[in-house]
């Protein structure tokens, strides 16, 4: 049988790039197949090098909330690209971006732009430690906060899928001050504080777990974290790299009505360009250099073309709150329908969802943390995912990732996706 262009490219790629990819989840290892090499995308569709068409449910892992190729974003990028790609000097567009973020997220008085979610989180943690003059941080099992050393402890996402919770090359000293607790368990958080109390600089949390599959917080969980931080003088950091500007304009913190001290962004904030940001209360952010003594820098941070893309998308979202109302309603009915299809199949699988994020876990157990997520039958997910991909539905190639619905998905595309899932369960 002739090999596909994607297969040929992958063979070549593995010679020159570790695993053939620049980020592990793209390797399709956890569904036992080879990656589709994508050549272009538009709205909710993507095409691979073999001209297969897909309805895209990852949206670049979140940024494409308005779909690929949104004309406002594209125009902004083209316009700014003509002015020179980067200057390494202050620009007015950085002020525009900072004002926009502060206007959309009330807990943020000041914001610093960086180039990825990883950088945003790493920097926010440093600021929290500098501000509190404490070293320990609490993170949750199954939450992913990028690949910086201190946070690669029982991380979710690609690390979890590979079944290797920690990474080689991270000195024990780097994680010695990282304490882990169980998601959705205030008891386990209290245990950490009982043990380390006023040594804890911050709790960092994904306000909706989205890197062990989609795991929403139980009622009261986030507020409980806020209360315990207040009690011990620790900071609360919401990692809103996925939830920020997705659940609603002011993210998970607006949705749940819980105010963090620091927030990290990525993904949507750059509309597909490499952008991250962290921000929070003025007194905390004024710890950052050159005002304060917490050092953080970036040659390409606040890059004008990247800012232009992000601003175009965020401005549209700010001015059109109805996008969220409609998207969240559409996603609600999509995921309820998917749960129905799964129920009819008699397999007892769980569909978790909140707003436009969701996951089908191949387990009969309710999924509310890392341990329960891990009860999923990843082989069963792989089988389902390969079928869907072979039938034009591009799902996350791993059980422990979310499905992202965008405002560009049409009712027809969503109906076609559900029909494909129904056929899978009928025939397999
Ligand atoms: C993706 C992600 C990160 C890391 O962002 P990168 O841009 O990949 O470095 C951090 N936190 C969360 C919650 C994420 O989903």
Describe the structure in your own words.
This protein has 428 residues and is α/β, with parallel strands linked by helices. The two termini are 24 Å apart. It is globular, with a radius of gyration of 21 Å. The strands form three sheets. It has a seven-stranded mixed β-sheet, sandwiched between helices. β8 (235-239), α9 and β9 (262-265) form a beta-alpha-beta unit. It folds into two domains: 5-68 and 322-427, Aspartate Aminotransferase, domain 1 (Alpha-Beta Complex), CATH 3.90.1150.10; 71-319, Aspartate Aminotransferase, domain 2 (3-Layer(aba) Sandwich). It is built from 15 helices and 14 strands. α2 packs antiparallel against α11, α3 (92-104) packs parallel to α11 and α12 (322-344) packs parallel to α15 (411-427). The protein binds pyridoxal-5'-phosphate. Residues 116-118, 121, 144-146, 206, 210-211, 239, 241-242, 266, 276 line the site of pyridoxal-5'-phosphate. InterPro entries: 4pyrrol_synth_GluAld_NH2Trfase, Aminotrans_3, PyrdxlP-dep_Trfase, PyrdxlP-dep_Trfase_major, PyrdxlP-dep_Trfase_small. Its cofactor is pyridoxal 5'-phosphate. Its main location: cytoplasm. Pathway: Porphyrin-containing compound metabolism; protoporphyrin-IX biosynthesis; 5-aminolevulinate from L-glutamyl-tRNA(Glu): step 2/2.
């Amino acid at each position: 049988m002739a090999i596909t262009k994607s297969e040929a490219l992958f063979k070549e790629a593995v010679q020159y790039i570790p695993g053939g990819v620049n980020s592990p989840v793209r390797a399709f290892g956890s569904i036992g197949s080879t990656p589709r090499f994508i050549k272009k995308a538009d709205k909710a569709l993507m095409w691979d090098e073999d001209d297969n068409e897909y309805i895209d449910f990852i949206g670049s892992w979140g940024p494409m909330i308005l779909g690929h190729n949104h004309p406002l974003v594209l125009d902004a990028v083209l316009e700014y690209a003509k002015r020179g790609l980067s200057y390494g000097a202050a620009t007015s567009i950085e002020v525009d971006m900072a004002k926009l973020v502060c206007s959309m997220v009330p807990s943020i008085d000041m914001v610093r732009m960086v180039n990825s979610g990883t950088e945003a989180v790493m920097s926010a943690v440093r600021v929290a430690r500098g501000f509190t003059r404490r070293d320990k941080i609490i993170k949750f099992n199954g939450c992913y906060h990028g690949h910086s050393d201190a946070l690669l402890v029982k991380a979710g996402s690609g690390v979890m899928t590979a079944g290797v919770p920690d990474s080689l090359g991270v000195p024990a000293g780097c994680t010695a001050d990282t304490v882990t607790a169980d998601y959705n368990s205030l008891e386990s958080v209290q245990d950490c504080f009982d043990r380390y109390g006023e040594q804890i600089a911050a709790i960092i949390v994904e306000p909706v777990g989205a890197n062990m599959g989609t795991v929403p917080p139980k009622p009261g969980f986030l507020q409980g974290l806020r209360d315990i931080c207040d009690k011990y003088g620790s900071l609360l950091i919401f990692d809103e790299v996925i939830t920020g500007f997705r659940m609603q304009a002011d993210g998970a913190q607006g949705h749940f009505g819980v105010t963090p001290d620091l927030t990290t962004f990525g993904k949507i904030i750059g509309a597909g360009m490499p952008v991250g940001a962290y921000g929070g209360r003025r007194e905390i952010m004024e710890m950052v250099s050159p005002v304060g003594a917490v050092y953080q820098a970036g040659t390409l941070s606040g890059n004008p073309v990247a800012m232009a893309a992000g601003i175009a998308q965020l401005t549209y979202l700010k001015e059109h709150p109805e996008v969220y109302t409609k998207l969240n309603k559409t996603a609600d009915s999509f995921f309820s329908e998917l749960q129905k299809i799964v129920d009819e199949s008699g397999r007892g699988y769980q569909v978790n969802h909140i707003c436009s994020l969701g996951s089908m876990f191949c387990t009969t157990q309710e999924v509310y943390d890392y341990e329960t997520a891990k009860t999923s039958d990843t082989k069963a997910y792989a089988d389902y995912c390969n079928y869907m991909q072979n039938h034009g539905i591009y799902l996350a190639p791993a059980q422990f990732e979310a499905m992202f619905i965008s405002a560009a998905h049409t009712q027809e595309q969503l109906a076609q996706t559900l029909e494909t899932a129904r056929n899978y369960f009928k025939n397999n």
